[in-house]
């Protein structure tokens, strides 16, 4: 007789899951498991999450190869460990406080800014982008239909978080070491600052492209690189017209907390 695990694997490959296995693989069951682990820090693999954060800068393809491995072993593309999300939240809090200090904000102003950035900029915008990309990819980018041919909403959110992390580090951390130059009235200021924006958003576009191109059942993923043309055009235009994106962001943050 074949072992039970072999029978389950064969059933999954044939698309015939038992009722018990099918219940375990529903979106609701995966979401429940993920949220439950969110409150158990000892069950999270923070070492692996840190590895992913480092490789998102040096070799993001390796991060998505791990997503492919998860699909083969756990039958899901999305993360089942919230450690990455927890570390991202910590990074977001620390970098926002640092940004508030640089802008000479008081305690309550920094707290207000932190709430805005966490719940609106990160969570709210993240959910919106993930839902939009989930809909577009499932509606217009499918090669063919099938049980395994589905972009999980959780995976779309993971792709956004992967792309958001380098953007956060570049704009909310690395840029702070040059902030006096960036927000100066000299042309070198908006050149340095806008270059940081070019790098940060470029990272976001590229890592998003890698995320969806890693899915073998999607087609025409190269269109996700098209925004690079708009990005470069805006960059050149901003230098010609003297727009300082970081100064605009700083003024927007101050407006929020006042």
Structure overview:
- The chain has 258 residues and is mostly helical.
- It has one domain (44-257).
- It has helices spanning 4-13, 19-24, 27-37, 46-58, 60-74, 83-102, 107-140, 153-172, 179-182, 187-213, 227-241, 245-257.
How many helices does DSSP assign?
12
Total domain count: 1
Low-pLDDT runs of 5+ residues are 1-24
Biggest β-sheet, characterized? none
Essential attributes:
single chain; 258 residues; mainly alpha; 0% strand; disordered N terminus
Characterize this entry briefly.
This protein is mainly alpha-helical. The chain has one domain.
Question: What is the fold's blueprint, element by element?
Answer:
Elements (H helix, E strand, L loop, with lengths): L3 H10 L5 H6 L2 H11 L8 H13 L1 H15 L8 H20 L4 H34 L12 H20 L6 H4 L4 H27 L13 H15 L3 H13 L1
Helix pairs in contact: 4-5, 6-7, 6-8, 7-8, 7-12, 8-10, 10-11
